[in-house]
Amino acid sequence: MLQCRPAQEFSFGPRALKEALVSSDPALRRLYASAFTPAERLFLAEAYNPQRTLFCTLLIHTAFDWLLSRPEAPEDFQTFHASLPPRRQSPARKHIYLQPIDLSEGPAGGALLEYLRDCTEAFFLGLQVRCLPSVAAASIHCSSRPSQDSDRLQLHTDGILSFLKSSKPGDALCVLGLTLSDLYPCEAWSFTFGKFLPGHEVGVCSFARFSGELLQPGPGASEAAPVQAAADGPETPVQDPGQTLCFSALGLAQCCKVTCHELCHLLGLGSCRWLGCIMQGALSLEEALRRPLDLCPICLRKLQHVLGFKLIDRYKRLYAWTRAGTRPDVDAGAPSASDETPPCSADSGLSCDSGSEPLTPDTWSHTFSAGPEPEPEEGLGSPAVPDSPPGCGPAVDAIREHGRWLERCIRALEREVTEEELAQAFTLCPHLCLLSPLVF
After folding, report:
1. 72 annotated active-site
2. Is the pTM of this model over 0.90?
3. What pLDDT does 269 receive?
């Protein structure tokens, strides 16, 4: 049997990670110190601690991974802060709207929407999430084409985005369309998980490839992040006009990921290249499966700057969501997508020997310029490239596993940490004191 080639680390050093989080700008360093308690700063410092236990280094599995296929300058907090428009949240604009498209409002479809609403209200603590009535794709007048790998039609994203822009409620901070139909952003792409319209706070994402008939665990799905993406439960049937899709625990987790990923873009966050993070791009289903369900410390600081929550409050709310038992009722007779694990195969040609040194940004920085603007569909699509290898990892319930990770985060944030203890902790690790000694 062909063996899966080991993944390669893609890592920045502690200095770069600390500067990405805290910033080298004195004003932003002071903002960091005032925005977070000592316990929160010690928790966020996991970003640049080489012995980190809560957040993981990025891994490259194939030459077609998003990190290599879409090289660009990483977005640190300073870059994010400089590009952020005037604060968009206000008493009149504090709602996230979810717009179902061709998604049944019956018991199954309604349960899925409620599940996503509860997830997003916890993820974006401080905002209210509302579900709009479902609209028919036919009424939007968007283009379509036959799918390349199924018997269904794919919807063009541009027509949907134009509709969302023109119908956006006046009190909306942003609007995200949700559909069970497959999407494509242009003729050259085989599909996309989602796309957003920069500057207009509208986007759309698809759950079509997270159903039981298409979803298969990807390569090393359990090794790339502290929150493994896998499933072991029965499936939930959800209907839209003319089709029924079944979602396993794994599929529901992916629906949550793509929804929160796109909403983060709509709130101003760019893609992440620092650590394992929900804001990584995905050019294949396998990459989407490997993404964790939450933000890395650098992106967490960005979201906290926009919404102003306490870290522990957000993690407790997310933990309550994982334990609430609000997962849509399942069809006990439906087979699980992960009952059969596909065999391992050779990868598709990572240009690095398995025994070589980990890849670093310095080894590829010469291949791109920091200047290009990201494409609207950046981070959530798939151009027509060779198929990624099938996966070979163990299966667990992704939401339950995420809850265990959240418990560890909550315990870390509940610790009583003084400024003196924080300074002493970094005195014991002098290689981490790479910026101002007053900011950790």
Report:
1. no
2. no
3. 95
